[in-house]
Write a structure and sequence with these properties.
This protein is an alpha/beta fold. 43% of the residues lie in helices and 10% in strands. It is built from 26 helices and 12 strands. Helix 1 packs across helix 4 and helix 4 runs antiparallel to helix 5.
């Protein structure tokens, strides 16, 4: 490559860096790690001019969008960033030095392989470009290998039981309450069982715990709601369809009842400790809130007596902090679409949702694989959690609309029009928001809330907000992203976590919680009246996995 003149060199080097943080991110940007971006004057100027151009365009758009409503400004910022990044010189074949170098060395064979890869990916019908090398994994062989048995199934889920091995039982006989693991209904269950080294299931089996996992069924993409609900019934003969309420009753609640039944049949404690991930954690809280007695004279639901501890993993609680939802479906558009019965009767392909989440981190999940697979003609490195992420079940549109209406459109835990105290209300007079808000404050179970510091889907502050209402809760903040921060086994010993010293719940606290007055909560947030930033400032950083800390906490409750 020819070199630039002195004036052009100076112009390239004098491009202002307005923000120190932006400059630091730029230096660590994967798109510009090739040595030519710094050593070659042409490519260095190209890189700097790209950032200069992108910054100026975004500044101009920001100034011109002042007349837009807030959601419009956020949408404009998101989509402008996405399309500007798409035109990064690193994504184009004739301005990426690594692509040019490989094209010369390989006599353009990289493009031949890239075209072949592209048509293979299109024919495969999955996410394009793929997140990982799907051929490197086979279910039951090198991923999701822990042996288990299906002990119950209906049209909503299968319940899988895992037992500790005999050598574990010699030292740790099963005397503890079983665990029920629940993943979000937009993901497969084996996020808890990626590999032997990263398996949350195996970690708990080694502690002598019996583990049950709820595996959501994936609907047929060609089915319709009216066909699905026709002549459907559970074992009791009760009719049902596939709305959110039915998922709560015939999904989560039914799974808890089955685990309790099996535990009692073998002489274990008649309780179940629940671990719920992402949206499933939100649904668990909604179900428990609706199950609480609405007033003092109301009968107590027997199910509540069988629930021990609750662990919420990246479970969104304050949905006003999930700004990205508005990028794809603004509130007004959602209200219109959700009323159209034609939409409510359909099934959404799982790959659509995966592609949507990829858009949130295009510079990490789209463009690197685009360059590597189609321009360089290379295979993508196999990554277990990305294979799992791409293996998404289909989703009932009815369920999605109900969920979005309740937690996103209403932000049900924080709906301002709902009463906070229903002690003087008659049963049935509260709105749904009132029932949930009053009910969640009555949850006496010990709750372990976990958030991930670099989570781009559920900001950790949204998870932390649950401590404002839960009476016996602690919060732990892990490093990493939405999945990597959560599935952080002691074997790999990556990342870190933050905890508040001395903030914990104990069995004694939980046992006596019903006798406390309502203005004497034990949640570490409510007791100290700290917001999320203040909590983080007072925490202690611990290197390694958070699993052992959680396991010690879990020991106190079963």
């Amino acid at each position: 490559m020819g070199k630039l003149g002195r004036e052009e060199k100076e112009a390239a080097r004098s491009v202002p860096s307005h923000e120190k943080e932006r400059e630091q991110k730029r230096r660590g940007d994967w798109r510009f790690t090739a040595p030519e971006w710094e050593e070659n004057d042409f490519f260095r100027a190209l890189k700097e001019q790209f950032f200069w151009w992108k910054g100026n365009v975004q500044t101009s758009l920001k100034e011109s969008s002042a007349v837009f409503p807030k959601w419009g400004r956020e949408q404009l910022d998101f989509w402008s960033t996405f399309f500007l990044d798409a035109y990064s010189p690193s994504n184009l074949p004739f301005t990426n030095p690594e692509v040019i170098r490989n094209t010369i060395l390989q006599n353009s064979e990289n493009y031949i392989r890239g075209v072949r890869n592209f048509f293979e990916d299109i024919a495969g019908g999955g996410v394009v470009p793929p997140l990982t090398d799907a051929k490197a994994f086979t279910l039951g062989e090198n991923i999701a290998t822990t042996p288990g048995n299906i002990v119950f199934e209906n049209d909503f889920f299968e319940l899988i039981e895992y037992l500790p091995t005999n050598d574990v039982l010699v030292h740790r006989p099963i005397e503890k309450a079983p665990l029920l693991l629940i993943s979000s209904w937009i993901n497969k269950y084996y996020v808890f069982d990626l590999t032997d080294e990263k398996s949350f299931i195996q970690f708990n089996l080694k502690q002598g715990r019996r583990v049950f996992v709820l595996s959501w069924c994936s609907p047929d993409i060609n089915s319709r709601a009216d066909e699905r609900s026709e002549n459907k019934a559970d074992n009791s003969g009760q009719q049902f369809d596939f709305s959110l309420d039915e998922y709560l009753v015939f999904g989560i609640r039914r799974a808890i009842e089955e685990v309790v039944k099996r535990a009692e049949s073998i002489g274990l404690k008649g309780k179940v400790n629940i671990v719920a991930m992402c949206a499933a954690g939100t649904l668990v809280l909604v179900m428990l809130a609706k199950t609480q007695p609405q007033k003092v004279c109301s009968p107590v639901d027997p199910l509540l007596e069988h629930i021990g501890s609750i662990t919420l993993l990246m479970a969104p609680y304050d949905f006003s902090l999930l700004k990205w939802i508005d990028f794809f479906l603004p509130s007004e558009q959602f209200k219109y679409i959700s009323k159209q019965q034609a939409f409510r009767k359909k099934v959404i392909p799982g790959k659509w949702l995966i592609q949507l989440f990829c858009l949130l981190r295009a510079n990490e999940l789209i463009w690197p694989n685009f360059v590597k697979r189609y321009l360089l003609g290379q295979d993508i490195e196999p990554m277990d959690f990305l294979f799992w992420n791409a293996d998404a079940p289909n989703l009932y549109t009815e369920l999605l609309f109900d969920f979005m209406e309740m937690v996103w459109n209403k932000n049900i835990f924080f709906a301002p029009e709902s009463p906070l105290d229903d002690s003087n209300k008659d049963c049935g007079t509260l709105s749904e928001e009132g029932v949930v808000q009053a009910g969640v404050r009555k949850i006496k179970n010990p709750v372990f809330v976990f958030g991930a510091q670099r989570d781009h889907i559920v900001p950790w502050q949204s998870c932390y907000a649950a401590l404002e209402h839960l009476e016996n809760a602690i919060f732990v903040l892990g490093g990493g992203g939405h999945i990597a921060g959560c599935i952080n086994s002691p074997t790999t010993n990556k990342y870190y976590f933050y905890k508040l010293e001395g903030a914990n719940t104990s069995p004694e606290n939980v046992e006596n919680s019903a006798m406390r007055e309502r203005n004497q909560p034990q949640s570490e947030n409510r007791a100290k009246k700290m917001d999320a930033d203040e909590w983080l400032r007072q925490t202690t950083r611990c290197d390694g996995s958070w699993w052992p800390f959680w396991s010690d906490w879990q020991e106190k409750f079963g």
